[in-house]
Each structure stands twice: as C-alpha cells, then as structure tokens.
Amino acid sequence: MRRKKAGGPSRAATSVFSFCSPPVLAASLFCLLAGASAGAFLELFLPETERAALWSLLDHSLFTVESAGQDLGGIFINSLAGNLLLLLLIILAGLSVFLFPLAFLLTAYKGMALGFSAALIFDMAGFRGLSVVFTSLVLPGLLLLPAFLLSSAAAGGLALGVLAQRKKGIKKSLVQGAGPYLLLQLIPFGAALGGCLIEAFLSPLLTLPLG
User: Fold this and answer.
1) Would residue 7 be called left, alpha or beta, if left means φ above 0 and alpha means ψ between -120 and 50 degrees?
2) What pLDDT score does 42 carry?
3) Is the dihedral of CA 130, 136, 141, 143 positive or negative?
4) CA end-to-end distance (rounded Å), the chain
5) For position 211, what pLDDT does the model report?
6) Cα(68)–Cα(163) distance, rounded to whole angstroms?
7) 79 alpha carbon, distance to own chain's centre
8) Who contacts 66 (Cβ-Cβ below 8 Å, separation ≥6)?
9) φ and ψ at 97, to 5 degrees?
10) Checking CA distances to 207, which of 57, 112, 135, 140 falls within 20 to 30 Å?
11) How many Cβ atoms sit within 10 Å of the Cβ of residue 16?
12) What are phi and psi of 103, to 5 degrees?
C-alpha cells in the first residue's frame, strides 16, 4: 500500500514561518520598545529652542494638508519611500547573514522616530496631543509596526538558522532558505503599504480638525 505523502501546503507554510521563532520576535519587540523609549527620553533633554523649532515643522506637517507644497499623493510617496527603504535594508541585512544585527538596529531606529514624535506632540500639544498621536501615529502604526517586527524577526531568524547550519555550508543553507524568507517578507511589505496609505490619506483627514 502506497504511503500518503506528507507535507503539501502546511509544510510549506511551516517552512515560511519557521524564521519567526519566539526568541527572535522577542528580540525584535525589545529593540522597537527600546528605540521608542530612547526617542522619548531624547525629546525630554532637547533644548527649548530646538524643541520649538521641531514642533513648528511638525505642527505644519500635521495640520496642513499641503505641507511644503506637497499634496496627499506626495505625502504617500514620501511615506512609502521611507518605510519601504527601511524594510528593504532589513531584508538585505538578513540575506547578508553576518549583518543581521542591522535589522534589529533599523527596527530600533523606527521605534526611536515614533517615540520622539509622540513625546514631542505630547509635550507641545498638551491634552490635545493624545488625539493627535492616535490619528497620526497609532493608526498607521497598527500596520507599520507589525511589519517592522515581522521583517526584522525573519531577518534574524534566517541569519541565525544559516549560521547554525554552517557545517553544511553557509551558501547552501542560504540558498535553501532564501525563497521562503523572501516569500514571508511579502507580508510586511503589504502591511507597510497599507500603513502608508493610512498615513497619507486617512490620518491627515482625522488630524486636521484637531489643529
């Protein structure tokens, strides 16, 4: 009697998500939170003149639809370029194997930018800042933050998996894992695209009335 072949879609799915083990996900989350905390503390120690100057720029960006002569489409392109560039660097860091810590550093950088912006808004806008942070940072962050967490965790998981099998050959192990790894990275790319759409088209419409 012929034995039924195991595997199929479930096996493929397992191989794709095997990069994101709990330890690397925890490391990615730690870097994001550490970066956000560092950004918030950095804002607290800024000189008053620099804080006021940065708030002037941020205030104009948040409460003016056409910031620096750009329409909402221009805001979308800038958001897309900035976020997808970071994700692309994270993906390349994982494929480089030895530079995989850069993926976690870029996640920390993203967290630092968000933490700094949130602290600045709270500091300068007072109670109104709570609503502004929700509409301008939290809403797009619902998709952007998981995208960075998943992408950097996958990068770390791939690199650590390849290094663990270095006796079989780093190049061979990398070639075997590259396909599922890149397939998995389509998920954070799609989530980041959705986050950029929210950041460019929904967030300004909700934030403008708060100005």
Assistant:
1) left
2) 93
3) positive
4) 73
5) 60
6) 47
7) 12
8) none
9) 70, -65
10) 112
11) 19
12) -60, -40
